[in-house]
């Protein structure tokens, strides 16, 4: 199992959360958070209700992240409720296993309180303990400036942009931004 030791964290506004590794038993609560996020974020989320995985697929995804040595699902809990998560998946190809994709979701009423930052810091600490992992990558729609500012503050840089990649309505498109962060400070980014 790849994960972290659970710990409590006080957010800047004084709210307390428990940050811990996700397990198979959490799959339904993670699914509920993703579903709520899609319902709330009609523009910033790449998923639509039609795109959501089934509960069974979500359970298999959580199980895969729990059991693989260099993949992880980290949860933020408050009073037993999952209020956020971050995951890292480095795929299965050897030549790409030094890097992987991050996914993050924070419940709407917990946003702008430092929870996303705390989830990323927990992920960075986990990744530093895995020598194979050198780079973290993510995708974000160009209109989600709040997320982009957080990612930049955490050391992510824009690596590319696919113009008009995300179709939000007939005739309405948004760019998809690719961002990355190298963990090893000795690596020249360019």
UniProtKB/TrEMBL annotation:
For this UniProt entry, the molecular function terms from Gene Ontology, in alphabetical order, are:
acyltransferase activity, transferring groups other than amino-acyl groups
Q: Which PROSITE patterns match?
A: GNAT
Q: Which Gene3D superfamilies match?
A: 3.40.630.30
Q: What residues does the N-acetyltransferase domain cover?
A: 17-184
Q: Does the keyword Phosphoprotein apply?
A: no
Keyword set, alphabetical order: Transferase
Q: Which Pfam families match?
A: Acetyltransf_1
Keyword check for Lipid biosynthesis, yes or no. Answer: no
In terms of PANTHER family, this protein maps to: GNAT-FAMILY ACETYLTRANSFERASE, SPERMIDINE N(1)-ACETYLTRANSFERASE
Q: What is this protein called?
A: GCN5-related N-acetyltransferase
Source organism per entry reads Ktedonobacter racemifer DSM 44963
Lineage of the organism:
Bacteria, Bacillati, Chloroflexota, Ktedonobacteria, Ktedonobacterales
């Amino acid at each position: 199992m790849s994960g972290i030791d659970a710990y409590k964290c006080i957010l800047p506004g004084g709210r307390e959360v428990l940050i811990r590794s996700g397990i198979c038993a959490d799959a339904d609560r993670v699914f509920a958070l993703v579903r709520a996020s899609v319902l709330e974020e009609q523009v910033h989320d790449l998923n639509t209700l039609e795109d959501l995985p089934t509960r069974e697929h979500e359970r298999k995804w959580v199980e895969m992240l729990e059991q693989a040595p260099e993949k992880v699902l980290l949860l933020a809990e408050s009073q037993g409720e999952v209020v956020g998560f971050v995951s890292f998946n480095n795929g299965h190809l050897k030549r790409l296993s030094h890097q992987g994709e991050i996914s993050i979701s924070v419940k709407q009423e917990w946003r702008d309180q430092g929870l996303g930052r705390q989830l990323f810091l927990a992920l960075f600490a986990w990744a530093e303990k895995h020598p194979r992992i050198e780079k973290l990558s993510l995708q974000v729609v160009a209109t989600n400036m709040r997320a982009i500012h957080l990612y930049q503050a955490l050391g992510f840089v824009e690596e590319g942009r696919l113009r008009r990649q995300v179709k939000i309505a007939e005739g309405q498109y948004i760019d998809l931004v690719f961002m990355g962060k190298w963990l090893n400070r000795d690596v020249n980014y360019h």
